[in-house]
What we know:
Elements: H1 4-15, E1 20-28, H2 33-44, E2 49-55, E3 60-66, H3 72-81, E4 85-88, H4 94-127, H5 139-160, H6 162-173, H7 180-200, H8 206-230, H9 232-238, E5 244-248, E6 256-260, E7 269-272, E8 281-287, E9 289-292, H10 294-297, E10 303-305, E11 310-311, E12 316-317, E13 322-328, H11 334-347, H12 351-358, H13 360-381, H14 383-396, H15 400-404, H16 407-419, E14 422-424, H17 428-434, E15 438-441, H18 443-447, E16 453-459, H19 463-474, H20 480-491, E17 502-507, E18 511-516, E19 519-524, H21 526-533, E20 547-553, E21 556-564, H22 571-580, E22 584-588, H23 593-603, E23 607-609, H24 614-626, E24 631-635, H25 641-646, E25 649-653, E26 666-668, H26 673-709, H27 715-733, H28 743-747
Parallel strand pairs: 15-22, 15-24, 22-23, 24-25, 25-26
Antiparallel strand pairs: 1-3, 1-4, 2-3, 5-6, 5-7, 7-13, 8-11, 8-13, 9-10, 9-12, 14-26, 16-21, 17-18, 18-19, 19-20, 20-21
Helix pairs in contact: 4-5, 4-8, 5-7, 5-8, 6-7, 7-8, 7-14, 8-16, 8-27, 13-14, 14-26, 14-27, 16-26, 17-26, 19-20, 22-26, 26-27
Amino acid sequence: xxxxxxxxxxxxxxxxxxxxxxxxxxxxxxxxxxxxxxxxxxxxxxxxxxxxxxxxxxxxxxxxxxxxxxxxxxxxxxxxxxxxxxxxxxxxxxxxxxxxxxxxxxxxxxxxxxxxxxxxxxxxxxxxxxxxxxxxxxxxxxxxxxxxxxxxxxxxxxxxxxxxxxxxxxxxxxxxxxxxxxxxxxxxxxxxxxxxxxxxxxxxxxxxxxxxxxxxxxxxxxxxxxxxxxxxxxxxxxxxxxxxxxxxxxxxxxxxxxxxxxxxxxxxxxxxxxxxxxxxxxxxxxxxxxxxxxxxxxxxxxxxxxxxxxxxxxxxxxxxxxxxxxxxxxxxxxxxxxxxxxxxxxxxxxxxxxxxxxxxxxxxxxxxxxxxxxxxxxxxxxxxxxxxxxxxxxxxxxxxxxxxxxxxxxxxxxxxxxxxxxxxxxxxxxxxxxxxxxxxxxxxxxxxxxxxxxxxxxxxxxxxxxxxxxxxxxxxxxxxxxxxxxxxxxxxxxxxxxxxxxxxxxxxxxxxxxxxxxxxxxxxxxxxxxxxxxxxxxxxxxxxxxxxxxxxxxxxxxxxxxxxxxxxxxxxxxxxxxxxxxxxxxxxxxxxxxxxxxxxxxxxxxxxxxxxxxxxxxxxxxxxxxxxxxxxxxxxxxxxxxxxxxxxxxxxxxxxxxxxxxxxxxxxxxxxxxxxxxxxxxxxxxxxxxxxxxxxxxxxxxxxxxxxxxxxxxxxxxxxxxxxxxxxxxxxxxxxxxxxxxxxxxxx
Length: 748
């Protein structure tokens, strides 16, 4: 027994625990991965910050800190000091976004208007140059046109290009080279060199500077519009949960209070009016309605809800009012887990993309060095062209295309998959799915519905006693087989006088074992029962071709249960589609060979393995991978944990696994196997687009850099090429939306 000093010590330890606070922030002003890295690095250095992670797709951040050492105001100030915007997630960013969009449009308008005017003044110099180069333009008129161009360019430099300068200054102040450093350098060098040439003679490129600003502003405006579209699914999900809820003060009394959803607790009774969002996961106590759960489960049709029905946070109550009791609230809801998984997926990148990102910042440094080196070389060859060639190199190789090559595609893929009931938990699955060679299926709960029903029961002993033991054991597990047996015995009213067990344990792939009155009992597969009593087992007449479960003790089998399962409606078509894509299909099951062959024959699966333990499935997949296969494993998440963790891509059915199951890369929330086939198509297309974008960015730079170094590109050529290269990769990402929705979706 502990003494009083130990108790006091524990109290002191508890009192010294830090007061941790968590908050979500809305961020603005981020342009690329370098912005994310800079903000995360600086905020994590603040005293008291325990964790800080930004989700680039939604421009949101999760932060936890010690409230005794740090305040939210100081955190927000630290972000704004870096040159970015930050607001608590509870404050809507719409007003700030509208203000930013309005400013962006004005900057684009000023640059576009100035570009047209300066082009008019530059045009005569191209057609009828000054007499020194065999032209008819007089020096006075030439200087006047240059002065007019300079005056018109000043507002563009001071107003339209100001975001580039502020961003570049922020990066340099933080000893970091970001995308806007070469952009700003190119603009300023072009402008001031042209100002010098205006008063001391020589060619000016005010038109190139303005065109560069205009094209870059236009490309970024389009980029922001595309980003909002590609992250629409994630943005919608984050707005599904209502801010307030109607809670009963003392149910069943009808007194209601309006409370913040954040203060809801498990067990609270809530009233949800028609048209409102469900505030928590729970069960309907009273009422008759239907709910739209499309974004959570992929189910396109409203789902009927009556007393006893489960409801999900974020779904919309369509018809009548419902009274519900909260079971999961806050971050524990399925909606919160769904958002968390999508945000985590947006943070991860395929290996090919990580390789490109790793070298992006180094690429900037190399470009600045090449520009400086080329300028020195050309200074020896042609002094008048040296500066312009250096500027062209900086402008033409601005790494916008390289940094934009991936985010748009990944965001679009994540959103499209989520819309069709496929939750991408880890983005690395995109690359693995695109290169998959083998698709391995579990049987129960995957190819079949997993809603087993007991067709027949056979007893070899006192049925009342053995049924009570079987019922008690079945209640110890959530496996579909146990649930089916429990429902059957309860319906037959054979669950009277259930005994209490000792030493209960569940064996993956086997069943339930427990001790009662000194005797060990097992409820599970035939092989699991044979291990207990070591007797030869002959299958009862009429039980062939059905899933069998046995209740046994050390003396033999006591009860036989013959269960039937139903093949999923879309299983045959899904297997046909996957085979049509050249994938090899395998079926791994712990069930008997005759049962597995029956399902395999219906789905036309030729490679079948039966009677497997979880370890047996693991070994087969491991052997496939050793031989060079890229394996996608589809299971119900019940006893497939080891093999799901081993597979290159693990896919869990939404009905069989908790949504927060960490071992799965993909969750089929819709429970439709056809959605897996659609997901493979999206993954193939997305990975192809990523490779095309990266290939284009590399090819563009391979061609553009030598051309600029050789003096073949004028600054305006460089500005046009850089902007067009960025637009190409952004527009290419939108091709993902050209994929047709699955036919069964449109039929609904």
